[in-house]
Amino acid sequence: MTQDMLTRDPLVIAEDWQAEGRAVAIATVVETWGSAPRPVGSHLVIDAEGNFEGSVSGGCVEGSVITEALEVLENGSPRMLEFGVADETAWRVGLSCGGRIRVYVERLG
User: Fold this and answer.
1) CA dist list (Å): 81 to 2, 7, 12, 29, 78
2) What are the residue boundaries of the XdhC- CoxI domain, all occurrences included (predicted)?
C-alpha cells in the first residue's frame, strides 16, 4: 500500500470509477474493538476487476474484503463481515495482533 493510497479519498475515486462506467462496491468500517488499525468510517472501494483504493484494516483483512466485494458486485446483496482473534478467520486474515473489526460491504449505484 502506497502513501498515495492512504491520502486519496476513496469516495472520490469511487465517483470517478462510476463515471467511467465501472461497477463499484464500497466497504466501510462500522465497528471496531481493541487494536483495530483503522477507525470507524474508513473506506475501501473495489471495482469489478478487483482494483481497489483505500483501507479498512491497514492490510490485515483487505484480501478477504475484496473477495467478498466481488461477490457483492456479482449478486447485488450487501453483507456484514466480521474479523477478529476470537473467530476462526483470525489467523487466515492476519488479525493475530488483537482486536475485532466489522465491515459493511455494498454495491454503489
Assistant:
1) 25, 25, 24, 9, 10
2) 17-84
Count structural domains, the chain: 1
* CA atoms of 93 and 86, how far apart (whole Å): 12
Burial zone of 89 (CB within 10 Å; 0-12 exposed, 13-18 middle, 19+ buried): middle
Q: Which domain holds residue 50?
A: 3-107
The pair phi, psi for residue 90, each rounded to 5°, is -55, -50
- Measured torsion, CA atoms of residues 11, 15, 20, 22, in degrees rounded to the nearest 10: 60
Q: How open is the CA angle 69-90-46, to the nearest 5 degrees? A: 15
* HSE-up (13 A, CA, CB side) for residue 31: 9
> What pLDDT digit, counting tens, does each position of 14-45 carry?
999 999 999 999 999 999 887 777 889 999 99
Give every strand in the sheet of 24-33, ordered side by side.
52-54, 43-47, 24-33, 100-107, 79-84
Mean pLDDT of 47-57: 94
